[in-house]
Design a protein that fits this description.
Number of domains of chain B: 2
Largest interface: A-B, 30 and 36 residues
Strand content of chain A: 25-35%
CATH superfamily of the largest domain in chain A: Rieske [2Fe-2S] iron-sulphur domain
Order of helices and strands of chain A: HEHEEEEEEEEE
Shape of chain B: globular
Number of domains of chain A: 2
Helix content of chain A: 25-40%
Number of helices of chain B: 18
Strand content of chain B: under 5%
Number of strands of chain A: 10
CATH architecture of the largest domain in chain A: 3-layer Sandwich
CATH topology of the largest domain in chain A: Rieske Iron-sulfur Protein
Largest sheet of chain A: 6 strands, antiparallel
Distance between the termini of chain A: 72 Å
Oligomer: heterodimer
Order of helices and strands of chain B: HHEHHHHHHHEHHEEHHHHHHH
Structural class of chain B: mainly alpha
């Protein structure tokens, strides 16, 4: 019942104010549910060591046996392989097309992704197929004691 | 029995419900009744999925060190474990087959026309959920195939503008596919997706109960009907029995699938994130067309990266498919809309050709088959099918609209026979469609311009 003597305009603005407060309250409570859920869903940051990585004895043996090796450093997977001139090279192992893992094909001197037939040269440049970008290059060096170290910072020209 | 019914009736008032069911009828005439049973068979295979999935859950353990091992344990040690897994895989494939045939029959009979738009949309979402089931279930055995299929499938999420990276990480539980991804997909596959699906199936069935099944075009009210209880239901049950026999026969005789790429579930090697993808790797058959499209797109196109453009194209096509009840204005007026029948045929030719090509038919089983030989062999098959469909439509149904299916066939022929690249052939086809529509609009006389916004 409208109050006698109380102007309708004032009444309406009071109702409007309550509606706004109710709306804000509803949005606030929705946000207080949605935000924690979204934060919960987003995975934690990368864990594990970053920086130069020394290959283990088993890894080195595998590299000699199969001419290629994939190692993990933090969140990246790196393909290490020996080219025709026995030079060690390292490229990002994840294909820039749809994220499959690439491989070194020693006979044809190329890097191949079996998923959608993308082909790269040994510097990671796209030769044919659908990949839109080159593979990032890393450097791989042989220490004085014969051990292999993969530098996990991207090479300057690629960064 | 009747005393129990009286007891319940007094409390819950069941009589109106029983009266409704007694008078429920299925429309007869106009077209074959066969198409009315396909929703039921899809539901039957879904029920088989729930039952066999529940049994698999008793032994399956998600985790990097346990997922693969537990599936191997189920198939090698648990009595009839191989059968339960085989039934689960076979009924998954049969469910998708049944769902696709159900969807296309609904499409060609224009059963999506008012007032059944929401039945179409809920059905479309259920189709997407079924694909989601297939995709999430694929990872659970944690074998090599699972790992790469999931890597590729989730990677395409980055094409979503704005939130792509966030979505990718949320789906994977990290930047790469890992055990975290397995946990997330497990939760999706056994809890989230089934709950949403059951809810939507409920809605889909409720709409059909309220509205009845769609009568044939031009017959607003069926002249006569078939009683649902017991006549239609008994037929339904008989068909379900036949489905069960088919399912059991396939599951027992081919426990690891028919051996076609994309339709096999040999456990293979355990997933190893540090191993390269192996040659000949392919996704499930119902994703093959997207897989092939990703291969056909160049690295860059229209200022976008190839995969992004491919995913955008697929999204636009699916969007058009979902919105068909609102696009097809002639069917809304209960008039025959052969342009939309043609759209359906074009869709079948488009998806079918890409699927055949992904299967490397004509590639002589080589590790890296000759792409031209594959394109030609698959083009021959698709063009013959297209010609058969054309003849059927022209002479049996007197259809006169063939622009879209013709353009789809032209693309296939140009690509397969004249070695024009798939995309360039597609551009020629799109231009042909545009010219065709312009001609239909400008042509004098009583034309039948189909109101179609976008070409496939």
């Amino acid at each position: 019942m409208p109050d006698e003597g109380c102007p309708l305009k004032k009444k309406r603005s009071r109702r409007g104010f309550i509606d706004i407060m109710l709306g804000l309250g509803f949005m606030g409570s929705t946000a207080s549910v949605v935000y924690p859920v979204l934060r919960y869903l987003k995975p934690l940051g990368p864990s594990g060591a970053q920086g130069p990585m020394k290959l283990t004895k088993e890894d080195q043996a595998k590299l000699e046996r199969e001419h290629m090796l994939i190692v993990r450093s933090g969140t990246t997977r790196i393909l290490v392989f020996e080219d025709g001139q026995q030079k060690l090279r390292a490229l990002d192992a994840r294909c820039t097309h749809e994220g499959c893992t690439v491989q070194f094909v020693p006979g044809e001197s190329l890097i191949w992704c079996a998923c959608h037939n993308g082909k790269f040269d040994l510097d990671g440049r796209v030769l044919s197929g659908p990949p839109p970008r080159p593979l990032a290059q890393y450097s791989c060096t042989r220490e004085a004691d014969g051990s292999l170290v993969v530098n996990t910072d991207r090479k300057k020209e690629e960064a | 029995m009747s005393r129990a019914f009286d007891w319940l009736d007094k409390r819950y008032g069941l009589t109106p419900l029983v009266d409704f069911l007694k008078h429920k009828e299925v429309p007869v005439g106009g077209h074959s009744m066969v198409w009315y049973y396909l929703g039921g068979t899809t539901l039957f295979f879904f029920a088989s999925q729930v039952c066999t999935g529940l049994l698999l859950l008793l032994f399956y353990q998600p985790g990097e060190a346990t997922a693969y091992e537990s599936i191997r344990f189920i198939t090698t040690k648990v009595p009839f474990g191989w059968l339960v897994r085989s039934l689960h895989c076979w009924s998954a494939h049969l469910m998708i087959v049944s769902l696709i045939v159900h969807m296309f029959s609904t499409f060609f009979l224009k059963a999506y026309r008012p007032p059944r738009e929401l039945s179409w949309v809920t059905g479309f979402v259920l189709f997407m959920l079924a694909l989601g089931f297939g995709f999430s279930g694929y990872l659970l055995p944690w074998n090599e195939l699972a790992f790469f299929a999931t890597s590729v499938g989730t990677d395409s999420m980055k094409a979503v503008p704005g939130i792509g990276d966030w979505l990718l990480q949320v789906l994977r539980g990290g930047t790469d596919v890992s055990a975290q991804t397995l946990y997330r997909f497990f939760a999706l596959h056994v809890v989230a997706l089934p709950l949403i699906t059951v809810g939507l199936v409920g809605g889909h069935l409720l709409f059909i109960q309220r509205q009845g099944m769609a009568p044939a075009m031009g017959t607003h009210v069926a002249r006569r009907g078939l009683r649902f209880f017991p006549d239609f239901l008994l037929r339904d049950l008989l068909l379900w029995l036949l489905c069960l026999i088919l399912l059991a026969t396939l599951a027992v005789s081919l426990p690891y699938g028919p051996g076609l790429p994309g339709v096999e579930w040999e456990l293979g090697k355990k997933a190893n994130p540090l191993a390269p993808a192996y040659p000949g790797i392919k996704p499930e058959w119902y994703f093959l067309w997207v897989y092939q499209l990703l291969k056909e797109f160049p690295p860059h196109i229209l200022g976008m990266e190839g995969p992004q453009a491919a995913i955008l194209l697929v999204s636009v096509m699916l969007g058009i498919w979902a919105a068909v009840p609102w696009l097809d204005r002639r069917a809304q007026r209960d008039e025959s809309s052969t342009a939309f029948s043609d759209l359906g045929v074009a869709a079948i030719l488009f998806v079918g050709y890409l699927t055949l090509k992904a299967w490397d038919i004509g590639g002589k089983g080589l590790k890296v088959p000759d792409t031209f030989a594959v394109a030609r062999a698959t083009s021959i098959i698709t063009v013959i099918v297209a010609a058969a469909i054309f003849a059927l439509r022209r002479f049996a149904y007197q259809h006169r609209f063939f622009l879209l299916s013709g353009a789809a066939t032209l693309q296939i022929a140009l690509h397969g026979f004249l070695r024009v690249s798939y995309l360039n052939a597609g551009i020629v086809s799109v231009l042909l469609i545009a010219a065709g529509f312009a001609y239909l609009r400008l042509r004098p006389g009583p034309s039948v311009p189909p109101r179609l916004g976008v070409a496939p």
